[in-house]
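Notes to self after the Tuesday call (sharing in case useful).
The group wants a holo model before anyone commits to mutagenesis around the pocket. I volunteered. Ligand is 4-hydroxy-3-methoxybenzoate. Logging inputs and output together so the record is complete.
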Amino acid sequence: MSLRYALVALLTGRPMTGYDIAKSFSRSVAHVWHAPDSQIYPELHRMERDGLLASVEVAWGRKGTKKEYHVTDAGLADFRAWMESPLAPQRQRDPVYLKAAYFDFADPAAVREQLRRQQEYWTEQLRMLEGTRATLLDRSHPTLAARLAKLDEREAERAVRFKVYAYDGLIARARTELDWIAEGFALLEELSP
Ligand code: VNL
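Result:
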């Protein structure tokens, strides 16, 4: 369900073709709501069917056309209603924490490998999140720049500050994960030297 809101959110910036949506999604909204392309295309069709999006045919290449999607009034109203109703907190559901609680069942080499993969993932996430945050702050991120072009300075400032706030949370989380992984390596040394 949240994918719909993620796609409406992205398209409030500017109308886009399915291909552009998938491309810019992966470099922006996906950092807060990940979804593979294979879910995005069918969701766009359902959202158009449900009246949240509408499309116009735009020229593509020499003879072809492509659908360009935009948010309808109904889509925006739906998004606002969701934004204004509180979310139920997500219960804990990360398989790595499930595993960690039972690492005593695993061979130390397997635990080390698990931790190594997590460390690689979060190191890359942190790098990417910090890089993206910088392009939000200096307003050079292309998806954000298109959005800001339609806003006055006060609205633009609000849009940037809230996005940076979201990334600050994600960055803090990535750092916490990396600290926790380092503690895991230390614990493994202590318990299975
Ligand atoms: C937007 C642009 C959103 C860049 C982002 O992450 C981002 C946007 C939520 O304009 O919607 O990294």
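Two things stood out.
The mean pLDDT is 97.
The chain has two domains: 2-84, 95-191.
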